[in-house]
Design a protein that fits this description.
This protein is α/β, with parallel strands linked by helices and about 290 residues long. It is built from eleven helices and ten strands. Helix content is about 40%, strand content about 15%. The structure holds glutamic acid (GLU) and zinc ion.
Length: about 290
């Protein structure tokens, strides 16, 4: 496998809080990898979860803080909330291929699973879906649908494996990996009110933005096999991956949005310069991701 040219990387933040130094690293890394190959670095706003991204100040801070840091992006910004038609079309394609099944499990269960995506794949696995609705007969499905029972669309990963086998994917740092679809969760790909989940939107959008090198945090590695399988089923090109280290504090804990001291806004307010933020982030990376502040 080799890097497809032109090299196109991306920074895909979810505007669900202030931008923090972990984001700065992700953006800087995406830009750096693009520049190293004379390529492009795209920006994508991942705002399909309208509840989590409701405060417009968070979106504004992405643009403002990136400009302040001097990290620029190429081409047009892609905004997921404006692309529901594209996701609905991809979902329909999957439905026609027969890889989806309706899940009538309680809304609360599904909402909890949904809220954990993509940030906590471990949590999703812990709540592993028992596959209850995978075994419903056509008659049972028809009856439930006729009764108006709400449902979500799940992907049948065993069926996907029968269809595509076990495709490979490659990470620049980790090397070649094999995706075993049947080991992935039968993830929810759409709900009644939202025609896409994180997984489907990422795959559709990486292809639409012609991303050839997916740059993102190592916390999302567990999502990659499922997304790789989706690419194959949908006939989309295969990108390479560059999952990067996550920044951690002195106690080894991952920096999170709630650590206010690490938000770009608060660093700016304290008079820290953009150059100093970037240098500190680079230093943290050289020290295996350990962040010691600006
Ligand atoms: N929007 C996701 C986040 O902010 C990143 C998704 C991805 O890079 O695939 O964590
Ligand atoms: Zn179910």
């Amino acid at each position: 496998m080799s890097l497809r040219h032109p090299v196109v990387t991306r920074f895909a933040p979810t505007p669900s809080g202030e931008l923090h130094v972990g984001h700065v690293f992700a953006a800087w890394r995406a830009r750096q990898l693009a520049d190293a190959h004379g390529g492009l670095c795209m920006l994508r706003i991942e705002d399909i979860d309208r509840e989590r991204t409701r405060d417009p100040r968070w979106l504004a801070s992405i643009y403002e803080d990136m400009q302040w840091l001097g990290i620029r992006f190429d081409g047009e910004v892609m905004v997921q909330s404006r692309r529901m038609g594209e996701y609905a079309a991809a979902l329909e394609k999957l439905r026609r291929l027969g890889v989806l099944y309706p899940c009538f499990c309680s809304r609360a269960d599904i909402r909890a699973e949904w809220a954990e995506m993509p940030r906590a794949p471990h949590a999703v696995r812990r709540m592993h879906y028992g596959g209850h609705c995978r075994g419903l007969s056509a008659d049972q499905v028809a009856e439930l649908m006729a009764s108006g029972a709400p449902y979500a669309w799940r992907i049948n990963m065993q069926y996907v494996e029968d269809m595509i086998g076990c495709p490979l994917w490659e990470d620049l740092r980790l090397g070649v990996r094999r995706c075993v679809p049947s080991e992935c969760e039968d993830a929810v790909l759409a709900r009644k009110d939202t025609p896409t989940s994180y997984h489907l939107a990422v795959v559709v959008d990486d292809a639409a933005q012609r991303v050839s090198l997916v740059t993102r945090g190592a916390d999302l590695i567990e999502c990659t096999p499922l997304q790789r399988a989706l690419q194959v089923v949908l006939g989309l090109p295969m990108p390479l991956y560059a999952h990067h280290t996550l920044l951690r504090d002195a106690s080894g804990k991952r920096l999170a949005k709630r650590d206010q001291a690490c938000s770009v806004r608060s660093l700016r307010a304290r008079g820290v310069s953009a150059q100093h933020v970037l240098t500190s982030v680079q230093r943290a990376v050289e020290q295996g991701g350990q962040w010691s502040g600006c």
